[in-house]
User: Fold this.
Amino acid sequence: MKNYRPTHECGVFAVFGHPDAAVLTYYGLYALQHRGQESAGIVTASGPNTPFLRHVNMGLVSQVFSNSDLDRLKGTRAVGHVRYSTSGSSNLVNAQPFVVNTARGQIAIAHNGNLVNASLLRDELEEQGSIFQTSVDSEVILHLLAQPASPEGVFSALRKVHGAFSLVLMSEREVIGVRDPFGFRPLAIGKLDGAWVLSSETCAFDLIHAEFVRDVEPGEVVIIDENGIRSEWPFSAERKAFCIFEYVYFARPDSIISDINVARVRTEMGRELARLHPVEADVVVPVPDSGNYAALGMAEELNIPYRHAFVRNHYIGRTFLQPSQLIRDFTVRVKLNLIKEAVEGKRVVVVDDSIVRGTTARARVVNLREAGAKEVHMRISCPPHRHSCFYGIDFPDPEKLLANQMTLDQIRDYLGCDSIGYLDVPSMVRATGQKENQFCLACFNADYPVAVDPNLDKHVMERRSNRPNLLGSAPVSPSLFSQRP
Assistant:
């Protein structure tokens, strides 16, 4: 069984009204690199009726873009994307942003999230003659947007998609941000020297010295053009269902979500964990980097020394040679190595954000035992993951989730630790300072805010053959919204 960590679909970024839009987007994507490491892309535009310029490739942001690439991407508007594939295979044809010519003119799109009805919509579109060139759900949105002839049809198209979606789009005259009515994924608004910026996380604003203005609200469409920024509300009101795992793991600790700093939330989760599962120990050790702040909170609450005993290798490529059985736990050691003297002869509390399959956690316990740890106590800063996610996080099928298959005592024995303690849902929510009904907790309790069919083959689009794009050019309309009364 392979080493497994939860993975996220992507991060999005956009700029309107700045002469260095491409460079700003490059740095914005650089700050969002943690949200996707498979591919990166930027699309820029200058004015109406000028061709969009696009550069995408596989790899990290620093690998995809050179100075000459950025020099070529002229324009005052840009949308960008970093990707991890939860829908569609990992190859260049699926790299975003996508660009297409339509009756409305050119449209570029970058998408963060996952649609639960993408394959059904795709089947309907193909029956109507649409031809797809990728295997990702984001292209379904693009085809829907390209279809309508009336301005209201844009909103009608958005209302057809169900699931999690934070989008940035660029048309002939506008940059547009869209957040689904449940607000599963984050999307924020910033401002820089009179230019407007959209980003999955506020940490990108800090890097480019943009001012954080506010979050895009669930169900809101923000339209940015030469006249400024305005909002539309095309969706029916729904309960809020922000993915709480953004606070637990995915978002960068220096980001602000719902006016709350992520690092502060994670530290408080550690405090809650210490109150729920106290333990007598000599040292608290985080699993870097996601366990750092929870471990700090736990150490402070229990008045136990906090030590970095695991050393992370930050220079691992996307692939590496798999060894023979000579090095049984190579996939763990290559990422995290242990400082023996920090744990030898000590009672150790190891704090991590989650346990998915359990193979990585088990190998870490083995490493600690080999280093001479007297006791090993595992503490996890979220509840046990027992259910799949259909909204953009690549948790595996339930039968591959350790907590779905074992009791807590069985998990403790499987990992080989002396004790194990998970944060519970009320404590986790309390650490955010918000109410439980503000969050999606489906991976913990199977309460899915948007109905899903668990029997639907979620890989149906990936198995289809990629087809060439035959959509072609169409008469250009300067704006997605210019005809609105």
In short: The longest strand covers residues 105-115. The longest helix spans residues 262-276. The domain at 263-432 is CATH 3.40.50.2020 (Rossmann fold). The chain has two domains: 10-241, 263-432.
